[in-house]
């Protein structure tokens, strides 16, 4: 018997008022198609509820959007209300990286390294035109035209800079995405398992190739 | 008043001598150093010098005709700031400065091909995504000329084998943006800092060369976003004066008020971030709470909070919101009230003994040093240098208001902090003098549909939130600029970090970096 995933509900905004519900529904359908384990499903629900309400962002900002991000974290907009509690200065402790601002050619390897240093499960939100597509600097010789060229982006949050409300909306979209995930089966296994059979085989192949050479 | 400049052309061989003489005559501040590609004529540099005594300027131009192997004498021995300016020109134009102690790239990766601001730069010579870590050389390069006219390259290590080098940045919450300091330590004491910039170099100057004048305006707000009004003001003013357009009195007053609001905005953010970096989270929240009030005022009139897009060539984009005067009064009262506003900042942070011990006597800069390094704005004034353009070369409506130029003599981090706090009060008083009698008039002069600036070189500057913000504009009479160069307020401030931090504890780097107050996208452009 399968327990089906349902549409995610979060406290702050009713489901119908979100845009782009289709993407989520598609995601749910895909997950349901595989069937869900009866024992793990309720646990999954509990853990996802917890995770979605404590997404801690990395303090990462390169330019203007970062200042708006600080405003979101500060008194008036106070993102702690929604569980984005505090920003973490170390990528090892962060759940989500908000790419605030322009990413340049020189910054790209650094950003990639930061992302690699984060522990799974991890998410990426592209904030502002620059992070989405290069924005006003798309014609420049030194700007990466969208972070999705180097990182897998979960939520795009347009604006130049996005208003604080829009930041929060984007973060809530991420919360909903987290809510529908199957934590036990897929999400905590995004990284390659070092003891994976396929990896073993690859390794043996490599060894053989080296021996031959 | 025209802002056209006609530089004195000096042959490369006599340049150093000529500049040294000018320095002896009292032109002791190198305000700007602009590399330009004049095509057939060759590559070259324009030096803009200022007398600190009365603010008069002079400009010197030098050209090297050989595009393949251009070189000019370095003036790093005359002005310390020339070090980073010349590295910038080398990075973008490939001009080698003879005798410069450290001729490396400063913004672009060391394996970058070509010099992007040259007119014949091929955009396809570098891929825009490069995921291998960048190579960072440990060797400083010095070029000198040999007897037979060829260049001699001399390499010296930047750090010695015994140096313990710590990387701070590019991703570090206290560098205020993405900036990389390679810091050599002796125990906990800093012995040397080697700054690496360009992590947010967006190529704004090159982009502007392909845009029409109104389009170039769009990029200014995104450079120093805490001086958005002022940067845009500087560019608009430069274009207007070049075209001989006189804006109405109303526009002048509106621009002045907006500039001052922006300055308060910037200083509040300075206060908040400094407090946050030193661990005082409550003070951070207070600062941001009050900053929101300014953003609300901006938003009502302009529609934008951070990126405002308000000044236009020949005026401003929208008339003031009906609530503007009322809101500004409320804000002034709020900041000055006995319970909240500035009073609260001083109670919670200025008097705090931890902050005082961490700031007093830390990172001292002398007046000679700040002039030589070109550190304008609050950092310069904290060391006793009177460099406020609003007093020296008044523009907009600054000639009709009374205010004090705040200076201190200590030159330490605490003085730099106090300058800004006091400047908030001065800005409030400037706004107060203007707000109740904003003259009537049009908010936008009639401009031609296609704006063309007459041929020539122009320079205008305003007092930005953190120093002199200049715009160098060279036009060939087209609808886009031939060369547009900004005097970044932050670049000299980053350059001075090495001097300011030497001998201090590594923890003091945070205090010093916070109080000199640079904004990295403005440094990198
Ligand atoms: S999207 Fe706009 S506000 Fe955000 S970093 Fe880019 S230019 Fe700045």
What can you tell me about this protein's structure?
The complex is a heterodimer of chains A (213) and B (525). Chain A has a domain at 56-182: 3-Layer(aba) Sandwich (Rossmann fold). Chain A is built from 7 helices and 3 strands. Chain A has helices at residues 21-33, 40-52, 64-73, 108-117, 128-133, 164-179, 197-212, and strands at residues 96-100, 123-127, 155-157. Chain A has a 3-stranded parallel β-sheet with strand order 1-2-3. In chain A, helix 5 (128-133) links the parallel strand 2 (123-127) and strand 3 (155-157). In chain A, helix 2 packs antiparallel against helix 6 and helix 3 (64-73) packs across helix 6. Chain B has 525 residues and is of the alpha+beta class. In chain B, the strands form 6 sheets. Chain B has a 4-stranded antiparallel β-sheet with strand order 1-15-16-17. A 4-stranded mixed β-sheet of chain B has the order 2-5-4-3. In chain B, helix 6 (249-277) runs antiparallel to helix 17 (506-516). Chain B starts with a strand and ends with a helix. At the A-B interface, helix 3 and helix 4 of A face helix 3, helix 6 and helix 7 of B. Iron/sulfur cluster is lined by residues 63-65, 101-102, 128-130, 135-136, 160-161 of chain A.
How is the topology of this model organized?
The complex is a heterodimer of chains A (213) and B (525).
Chain A: H1 21-33, H2 40-52, H3 64-73, E1 96-100, H4 108-117, E2 123-127, H5 128-133, E3 155-157, H6 164-179, H7 197-212
Chain B: E1 4-5, E2 8-9, H1 15-24, E3 29-37, E4 43-50, E5 57-64, E6 71-73, H2 82-93, E7 96-98, E8 139-145, E9 151-157, E10 164-168, E11 180-186, E12 189-196, H3 204-209, H4 213-220, H5 228-243, H6 249-277, H7 281-302, E13 311-312, E14 315-316, H8 324-336, H9 342-350, H10 353-359, H11 367-372, H12 377-381, H13 389-392, H14 413-435, E15 456-464, E16 467-475, E17 483-487, H15 490-495, H16 497-501, H17 506-516, H18 520-524
Parallel strand pairs in B: 2-5, 6-7
Antiparallel strand pairs in B: 1-15, 3-4, 4-5, 8-9, 10-11, 11-12, 13-14, 15-16, 16-17
Helix pairs in contact in B: 5-6, 6-7, 6-14, 6-17, 7-8, 7-9, 8-14, 14-17
The structure holds iron/sulfur cluster.
Iron/sulfur cluster (SF4) is lined by residues 63-65, 101-102, 128-130, 135-136, 160-161 of chain A.
């Amino acid at each position: 018997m399968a327990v089906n995933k349902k549409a995610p509900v979060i406290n702050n905004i009713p489901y119908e008022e979100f845009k782009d519900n289709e993407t989520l529904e598609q995601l749910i359908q895909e997950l349901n198609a595989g069937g869900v384990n009866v024992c793990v499903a309720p646990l999954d629900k509990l853990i996802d509820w917890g995770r979605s309400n404590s997404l801690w962002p990395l303090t990462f900002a390169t330019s203007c959007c970062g200042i708006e991000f600080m405003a979101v974290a500060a008194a008036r907009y106070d993102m702690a209300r929604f569980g984005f509690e505090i920003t973490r200065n170390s990528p090892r402790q962060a759940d989500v990286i908000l790419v605030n601002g322009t990413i340049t050619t020189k910054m790209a390897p650094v950003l990639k390294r930061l992302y690699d240093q984060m522990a799974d499960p991890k998410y990426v939100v592209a904030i502002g035109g620059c992070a989405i597509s290069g924005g006003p600097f798309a014609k420049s010789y030194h700007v990466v035209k969208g972070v999705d060229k180097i990182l897998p982006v979960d939520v795009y949050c347009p604006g130049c800079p996005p208003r604080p409300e829009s930041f929060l909306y984007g973060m809530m979209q991420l919360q909903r995405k987290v809510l529908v995930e199957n934590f036990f089966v897929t999400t905590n296994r995004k990284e390659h398992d070092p003891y994976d059979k396929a990896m073993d085989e690859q390794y043996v192949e490599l060894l053989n190739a080296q021996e031959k050479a | 008043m025209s802002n056209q400049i006609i530089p004195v052309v000096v042959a490369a061989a006599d340049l150093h001598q000529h500049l040294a003489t000018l320095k002896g005559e009292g032109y002791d501040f190198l305000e700007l150093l602009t590399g330009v590609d004049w095509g057939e004529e060759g590559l070259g540099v324009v030096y803009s010098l200022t007398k600190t005594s009365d603010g008069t300027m002079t400009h010197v131009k030098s050209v090297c005709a050989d595009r393949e192997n251009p070189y000019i004498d370095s003036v790093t021995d005359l002005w310390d700031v020339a070090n980073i300016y010349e590295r910038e020109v080398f990075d973008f134009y490939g001009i080698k400065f003879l005798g410069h102690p450290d001729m490396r790239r400063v913004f672009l990766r060391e394996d970058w091909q070509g010099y992007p601001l040259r007119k014949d730069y091929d955009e396809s010579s570098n891929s825009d995504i490069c995921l291998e870590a960048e190579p960072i050389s440990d060797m400083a390069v010095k070029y000198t000329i040999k007897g037979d006219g060829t260049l001699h390259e001399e390499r010296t290590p930047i750090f010695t084998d015994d140096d313990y080098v710590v990387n701070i940045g590019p991703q570090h919450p206290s560098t205020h943006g993405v900036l990389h300091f390679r810091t050599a330590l002796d125990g906990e004491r800093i012995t040397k800092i080697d700054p690496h910039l360009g992590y947010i170099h967006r190529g704004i100057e090159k982009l502007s060369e392909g845009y029409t004048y109104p389009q170039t305006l769009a990029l200014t707000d995104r450079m120093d976003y805490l001086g958005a009004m002022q940067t845009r003001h500087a560019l608009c003013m430069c274009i207007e004066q070049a075209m001989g357009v006189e804006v109405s009195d109303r526009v002048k007053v509106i621009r002045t008020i907006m500039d001052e609001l922006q300055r308060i905005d910037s200083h509040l953010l300075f206060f908040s971030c400094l407090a946050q970096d030193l661990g005082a989270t409550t003070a951070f929240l207070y600062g941001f709470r009050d900053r929101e009030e300014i953003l609300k005022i901006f938003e009502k009139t302009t529609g934008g909070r951070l990126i405002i897009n308000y000044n236009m060539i020949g005026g401003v984009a929208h008339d003031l919101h009906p609530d503007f005067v009322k809101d500004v009064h409320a804000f002034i009262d709020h900041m000055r009230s006995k319970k909240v506003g500035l009073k609260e900042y001083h109670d919670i942070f200025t008097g705090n003994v931890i902050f005082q011990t961490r700031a007093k006597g830390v990172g001292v800069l002398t007046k000679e040093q700040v002039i030589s390094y070109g550190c304008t704005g609050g950092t310069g004034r904290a060391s006793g240098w009177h460099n406020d353009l609003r007093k020296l070369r008044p523009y907009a409506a600054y000639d009709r208001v009374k205010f004090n130029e705040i200076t201190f003599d200590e030159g330490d981090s605490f003085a730099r902090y106090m300058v800004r706090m006091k400047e908030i009060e001065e800005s409030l008083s400037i706004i107060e003098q203007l707000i109740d009698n904003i003259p009537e008039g049009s908010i936008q002069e009639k401009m031609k549909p296609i704006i063309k600036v007459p041929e020539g070189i122009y320079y205008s500057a305003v007092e930005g939130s953190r120093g002199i913000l200049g715009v160098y504009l060279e036009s060939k009479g087209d609808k886009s600029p031939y060369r547009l160069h900004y005097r970044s307020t932050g670049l000299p401030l980053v350059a001075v970090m090495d001097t300011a931090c030497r001998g201090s504890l590594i923890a003091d780097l945070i205090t010093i970096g916070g109080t000199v107050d640079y904004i990295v996208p403005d440094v990198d452009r």
